[in-house]
Write a structure and sequence with these properties.
- The complex is a heterodimer of chains A (about 450) and B (about 160).
- Chain A has about 450 residues and is an alpha+beta fold.
- Chain A folds into two domains: about 120 residues, Rieske Iron-sulfur Protein (3-layer Sandwich), CATH 2.102.10; about 250 residues, Naphthalene 1,2-dioxygenase Alpha Subunit, Chain A, domain 1, CATH 3.90.380.10.
- Chain A is about 30% helix and about 25% strand.
- Chain A starts with 7 loop residues before the first helix and ends in an 11-residue tail after the last helix.
- Chain B has one domain: Nuclear Transport Factor 2, Chain: A (Roll).
- Chain B contains three helices and seven strands.
- In chain B, strands 1, 2, 3, 4, 5, 6 and 7 form a seven-stranded mixed beta sheet that branches.
- Classes of the chains: A alpha+beta (about 450), B alpha+beta (about 160).
- Chains A and B meet through strand 13, helix 8, helix 9, strand 19 and helix 13 of A and strand 2 and helix 3 of B.
């Protein structure tokens, strides 16, 4: 359309209650606005504290298109800094993680910075006397993000200096993160290994929307889950014979529509929501010996049961992550361009729980989220066909109206039929809100 | 029957050729019933169970993967991918009475539509002699750039 170039106030016109214009997926101008506004005004996931356990440990990643460093400055103090030297722009670190010792040192001209970003030293500093460098932002050190929050080990940051508070942004949606962490008998998670990294040639929002799209598994994944069920039946195993491990993970994707309708979707304000209110594809995983006992020891039987009875499937945290509490996974959909997204899929160990739980989440990760995963292949094919198909002129809107209600109010929590597209609409409601948040704090659209 | 070094090396070449030519029924028959195909995610990874791998598949998963390639509703294989292995002469690192270990460097090319990718990799085969026939117990494939972000890898290196 083009009219929204550089103007977030017109970009929100691309979103209507029942449909969104294709430019939200394919336009580089809209992508640039998202990076500048949505990803700056929202709280975005950076990393887990266990990825930087010791002083000087760092992790390099991105918030939207902004390169950032998560670094442990002191034992209980993690900072998030923009990854550029304030001098000439050189990235300070290039490896994905490491330890920088007591300070960062730019490899180009040896400007150095404390691990909170403050300028430490510049070689031949007297050459800057009288130039006013110390009065410019460049003379202060490495730029920090606007705000950082460590919530139960998960590090989130807001790029904007001013804006919505962490507590207001997430509200009651934090119950999903709480449940994931509470599943550790010690109330603590630790990252396990590097993430899977999977490159998609599609818009990041397609991936986020897919996380609560319950009308696609039995169709798009018929090739993998349907074939698994068929193979299993052909094996004709005797009663009580152990099922192949893959059956527990992949077969539930073939559950019928009624299953997904009944599982329910909950939405929270600011674009967060989850599938699996009542049950989910994770409900029927076999019990692991010793785990429940360890949980009861910590929490008592009633609370332990309540924690483990929660079967939330996918919880989307706007803008770009999804967590799976019952199996301790986090996927982050990092936007690289309007049509390019990298998906990183992490698994976590429940500290104090049996290793079999880690083995199960590792198995799920490689079966479902890997670039070598047959389930991943099913999904990527659909996203990329859509990314190409959206260029068709004359039919420029994408429908998101499934189970749309007249009086939908995304400022209120809601629980709905599990096949509603309400969570997609909720995400776009938040998209509009944070697209314009720094311009007009009164709300999203007029 | 005793197995010569040439037998073992020919077996590795033949396996690569079956994959390139899509002769999957023959390929599945090369495996022991409890065999595993492992493709680590991390450089020099030592644990296939408690860490994420790209693949760690038993015979059920490998059969599923092969079966799926020909499925009527396998949209990511419409059109089909093709692959091509260029392998160096395998090192035979261990020769015991009935168990053998090889190490093979290869370049693997996979293509579909307008995309083609090249992976440099090292395959380790743990082979077992059963009733006079070599079988694969474990195949471990280490991709040189295992830490890179990949597009789909739909066929098997």
């Amino acid at each position: 359309m083009g009219f929204h170039v550089g103007n977030p106030k017109t970009a929100v016109d691309l979103v209507q209650a029942h449909q969104v214009h294709r430019d939200v997926y394919i336009s580089p101008e809209v992508y640039a606005l998202e990076m500048k506004h949505v990803f700056a005004n929202a709280w975005v996931f950076v990393g887990h504290e266990s990825q930087t356990p010791n002083k000087g440990d760092y992790l390099a990643t991105q918030i939207g298109n902004q390169p950032v460093i998560q670094v442990r400055h002191k034992a209980d103090d993690i900072h998030v800094l923009l990854n550029r030297c304030p001098h000439k722009g050189t990235k300070i670190v290039i490896d994905r993680q490491g330890n920088t010792g007591k300070f960062f040192r730019c490899p180009y001209h040896a400007w150095s910075f404390k691990t909170d970003g403050c300028l430490l030293a510049i070689p031949l500093k007297k050459g800057y006397e009288g130039t006013g460098l110390e009065k410019t932002p460049n003379g202060k050190g490495m730029k920090a993000v606007g705000a950082v929050k460590n919530y139960r080990g998960f590090i989130f940051a807001r790029l904007a200096e001013e804006g919505i508070s962490f507590e207001e942004f997430f509200g009651d949606s934090l119950s999903s993160l709480d449940n994931m962490v509470d599943r550790s008998p010690e109330g603590r998670l630790e990252v396990v290994g590097p993430p899977l990294r999977y490159m998609h040639h599609c818009n990041w929002k397609m991936l986020v929307e897919n996380q609560t799209d319950t009308c696609h598994p039995m169709v798009a994944h018929e090739s993998s889950a349907g074939t698994a069920v068929k193979l299993y039946e052909e094996m004709d195993l005797p009663e009580g014979a152990p099922k192949p491990a893959a059956m527990q993970i992949i077969a539930p994707f073939m559950s019928p529509y009624e299953f997904f309708e009944g599982m329910g979707i909950r939405t929270w304000p600011n674009g967060h929501g989850h599938t699996g209110v009542h049950h989910s594809i994770h409900s029927d995983y076999s019990a692991i010996p010793g785990y429940f006992d360890a949980m009861v020891e910590t929490y008592g039987e009633e609370k332990a049961k309540a924690i483990l009875d929660e079967n939330r499937h996918n919880t989307v945290y706007f803008p770009n992550i999804m967590i799976k509490g019952p199996i301790q996974q986090l996927r982050t959909f990092i936007p690289l361009a309007a049509d390019k997204t990298i998906v990183e899929s992490y698994i976590y160990r429940l500290v104090g729980a049996p290793d079999e739980l880690t083995a199960r989440t590792a198995m799920y990760n490689r079966m479902i989220n890997a670039p070598t995963s047959i389930v991943g292949h099913d999904d990527l094919e659909m996203y990329e066909r859509a990314q190409e198909g959206l260029h068709v002129n004359g039919l420029e809107w994408v429908n998101i109206s499934r189970l749309l209600e007249d009086d939908e109010n995304h400022d209120e929590e809601a629980v709905m039929n599990g096949t509603t597209e309400r969570q997609m609409r909720n995400q776009f409601d938040a998209w509009c809100k944070f697209m314009t948040y720094d311009l007009d704090q009164q709300g999203p659209k007029e | 029957m005793s197995v010569s070094k040439d037998h073992i090396i020919d077996f590795i070449y033949e396996e690569a050729r079956m994959l390139d030519e899509g002769r999957y029924d023959e390929w599945l028959a090369l495996w022991l019933p409890d065999g595993h195909y492992w493709m680590p995610l991390d450089y020099k990874q030592s644990d296939p169970i408690n860490e994420t791998s790209l693949l760690y598949e038993d015979m059920f998963m490998l059969k599923l993967r092969v079966e799926r390639l020909n499925g009527a509703r396998t949209f990511s294989q419409k059109p089909k991918s093709r692959c091509h292995h260029v392998i160096q002469r395998p090192f035979v690192d261990e020769m015991n009475d009935t168990t053998f270990v090889t190490n093979t460097s290869m370049h693997y090319v996979e293509t579909r539509l307008d995309e083609q990718q090249l992976l440099a990799l090292t395959a380790r085969h743990d082979l077992t002699l059963v009733d006079g026939t070599l079988r694969i117990a474990i195949k471990r494939v280490d991709i040189l750039n295992c830490d890179a972000a990949f597009r789909n890898i739909q066929l098997l290196p």
